[in-house]
Amino acid sequence: MKTTIDLPDDVFLKAKILAAERSMSFKDLVVQGLKLVTEASAEADERKRKAELKRLLKAMRASNTEPMVPLSRKEIYDR
Q1: pLDDT tier, 60 (very low <50, low <70, confident <90, very high otherwise)
Q2: Residue 29 CB contacts under 8 Å (≥ 6 apart), including other chains
Q3: CA distance 23 to 36
Q4: Is residue 49 part of a domain?
Q5: Which letter, b or e, does each residue of 26-61 get, where b requires 16 or more Cβ atoms within 10 Å of its Cβ?
Q6: For 70-74, what is the mean pLDDT?
Q7: Which residue of 12, 25, 28, 50 pairs with 7 in a disulfide if CB–CB is 3.0 to 4.6 A?
Q8: Residue 77 lies inside a defined structural domain of this protein
Q9: Is residue 11 very low, low, confident or very high in pLDDT (cuts 50, 70, 90)?
Q10: Looking at residues 35-62, what average pLDDT do you find?
Q11: What is the 3-state secondary structure (H, E, C) of 19-69?
């Protein structure tokens, strides 16, 4: 897809120089940079989602987490 963006002159110049140093086109450099940013954002979102799920599961845990022990007939009727 074609698009037009306004870049500050200094950013554009640094990006052109970096692209030339890496023997790649300006377009490829921009695409690579956008992929890095979007993947990092997706990973951060995934980490946040997992942390929230962990928090919710912890909140749902019963406060009395002692293992259940079978009661004898006498103990049942004594209660």
Answers
A1: confident
A2: 15, 18, 19, 22
A3: 19
A4: yes
A5: eeebeeeeeeeeeeeeeeeeeeeeeeeeeeeeeeee
A6: 86
A7: 12
A8: no
A9: very high
A10: 87
A11: HHHCCCCHHHHHHHHHHHHHHHHHHHHHHHHHHHHHHHHHHHCCCCCCCCC
- The range of the structural domain enclosing residue 33 comes to 25-58
How far, in Å, CA of 5 to CA of 65, rounded? 58
**Do the Cβ atoms of 30 and 15 come closer than 8 Å?**
yes
**Both tokens assigned to 35:** 């992929």
pTM as predicted: 0.57
Distance CA 34, CA 36 (A): 5
Report yes or no on 31 lying in a domain: yes
